Amino acid sequence: MGSSTPVEITALEESFRRFAIHGDTRATGKEMHGKNWSKLCKDCGVIDGKNVTLTDVDIVFSKVKKKSCRTIVFEEFKVALGELARKKYKEKTGEDAEAEVFKLIEGKAPVIAGVTRAVASPTVSRLTDTTKFTGSHKERFDETGRGKGKAGRVDLVDTSGYVSGYKHRGTSKGKLHTTIFL
Predict the structure, then answer these.
(1) CA geometry: angle at 13 spanning 11 and 15, to 5°?
(2) Hey, what's the torsion of the CAs at 83, 87, 92, 96, to 10 degrees?
(3) How far apart are CA 76 and CA 113, in angstroms?
(4) Which CATH superfamily is domain 11-104 in?
(5) Is 31 strand, coil or helix?
(6) Per-domain residue ranges for the chain?
(7) Rounded to the nearest 5 degrees, what angle is found at the Cα of 161, between the Cα atoms of 157 and 166?
(8) What confidence score (pLDDT) does residue 143 get?
(9) What SS3 class is residue 138?
(10) pTM, two decimal places
């Protein structure tokens, strides 16, 4: 093999890879599909809603990818960014515009949607207030409002052999009563 120098990965390529594998466990990071391309443009602020819209991003993706492919490689990615850069920074030269867009993306990673905070609406509060529960639902919680788990949900099976609610349960003392029909 010899002492081959490792290929330098640019910050831009690093971001490309991070977005390329986002949400896809099988992804190699060498190609990016349209959904992640759109996410990258959104998360990194390439889409501004004025000069560059989601539609522009989709059109450019379709334009740069190979006909039979559903993904773009890093080189095509750079071409696509170049196209968007010229739309976004109309007043700059092509190269300057590209440099600006690259700066938006370099070193970035996909924004993972934050955990949504629970909204304490009166409706939800009412539905989750165990003190207001009635009937069999009431049985599912102890006095403190904590759930009893399975014991609160499952009717524990009575194996005594008596019909539930039988008044004289446990009084037969082993006698067997038989009625004979003639």
Answers:
(1) 70
(2) -30
(3) 27
(4) EF-hand (1.10.238.10)
(5) strand
(6) 11-104
(7) 95
(8) 72
(9) helix
(10) 0.59
